[in-house]
Amino acid sequence: MPKEADHLEDGGDKESKEESTQGTSQETVRKRVRADTPSRHAEDSPQASPPRFVSVEELMETAKRVTNMALAHEIMINQAFQVKPAEPPEGSLERRVKEIMHKAFWDCLETQLMEEPPSYGHAIKLLAEIKETLLSFLLPGHGRQRSRIEEVLDLPLIQQQAENGALDIGRLSQFIVGMMGSLCAPCRDEDINKLKENTDIVPLLKAIFSVLDLMKVDMANFAVSSIRPHLMQQSVEYERNKFQEFLETQPNALDFTEKWLEDTVKSLREAGVDGSSAASSEPPSLLPLNVHNQAYLRLLRWDHASDPFPETMLMDQVRFQEMQHEADRLVLLSALLLIVYTTTGEAISGLPGLMETLKNTINIMLADMHTPSFSAQEALATIGEKLCVELSQCLSQHGYSPFSANRKSILKGQISATIQPDNTVRKLMESRVQTYLLASLEFSQHKTPPPLPGGLSPVSRELKELAVHFSRLVTYNKLVFSPFYQKILQKILTAGESPGTEM
């Protein structure tokens, strides 16, 4: 947009563009990174270092470091990360002010060009901004285009032409549109064609700025995709150093991470889990690698409403919540399908397409299972009714005996019973899903997928996708924060055990 309008908005667009470049991840991190964590959950926190006062400048610098780290992390983890144009919400005061200011600017330009003789003050400023933008799109090898832009958009010459009444804004506009066409991404070809059809100067200049804004976003996304391979090589060290800087500002910023690992070790000892696969008469030896994998698995059963999330995982808390929701859905889906096939018997075991039909029916009913308005009891009752209808139709089509009322009643009862926390079938499928995800962490180093536990074949594709996502996120987190985890585990594990170095 024109700089004059931007100035009238007192820098509002500049701030919006800056926020959009950093994406939604940063906004989330700002809300979730808790500089005052010990005071908010003092009862859950281990003993921390004494608090110290920090200046506003220190806090601002710390926030900047965390924001930059979050942006680099988002680019690395989210392969679909893209910069998006910032637009104020529809109906907001900011949007209304922006529209008024921009309309005033373009109306003023139109008035100047209609004067006798025309006044080109605003128009020349627009051409200068357009020239600057076009030059910013050029790469080092674009010497020819650079020379052409400098030659045609020669501002001193344009000023002289304006003073002598010889300035041809239309010709310059068509040159600009042609140069934009040679520099834009293929997805902007349609926009460029529309510009070529526009002959009215003011609407054309306005449309040129709109397309230039889109081209800036395209260039930013191209830059992100270009730096990602290089960022991959340095991101681990970068994030680790940035977190160390944050830790120096907030010495107790690992309290919840330490509690997360302590609780994992405690639960493993209480369960009598041996860190190795071999049986041993010696006391359990909790290897750090095994402890850590179990700790990550606990994040998929986390109570996000009441338990503080580990600081080293904060930037991915939303992702872990999403994976937790997906795991819960797959557990319930596989449990319901197992109940259907064990209750109905062999008559439906080999019927083509039935599994997908039942699966789709259940998925539709479970689509909102993690929303506040979702009623599990009502959803399961509806699922029971719909599955009975599907099974009755299927058995009838293939010449089997009808689905009796007694079998329908039993099936509906077993489906409704899965709402209970101690339901045997649901607990069994949850245990198998957790076992598979834990195995995916152990097998990730060998690039070999673990075997699929029984009963999970209907959700094998979704479960494998979840396991890949989970393993990648965990592996990257280990690479970044392993030095911090090693120090914590060395304090937690008994002095007689060797904590090792592998994470």
What can you see in these coordinates?
- This protein is mostly helical.
- The chain has 2 domains: 93-230, no CATH class; 233-272 and 284-496, no CATH class.
- Helices cover 68% and strands 0% of the residues.
- The protein contains 19 helices and no strands.
- The chain has helices spanning 3-8, 12-32, 37-40, 56-77, 93-113, 121-137, 143-152, 155-163, 169-183, 189-197, 201-249, 255-271, 288-298, 317-344, 354-366, 376-397, 405-417, 424-443, 460-492.
- The two termini are 50 Å apart.
- Residues 1-56 and 273-285 have low confidence and may be disordered.
- Helical proportion? 55-70%
Count of the separate structural domains: 2
User: What percent of residues are in strands?
Assistant: under 5%
Count of DSSP E strands?
Answer: 0
Give me the strand/helix succession: HHHHHHHHHHHHHHHHHHH
Given the structure, what is the number of helices? 19
Q: Sheet with the most strands?
A: none
Protein name: T-complex 11, testis-specific-like 1
Region (Disordered): 1-53
Biased composition (Basic and acidic residues): 1-20, 28-44
Family: Belongs to the TCP11 family.
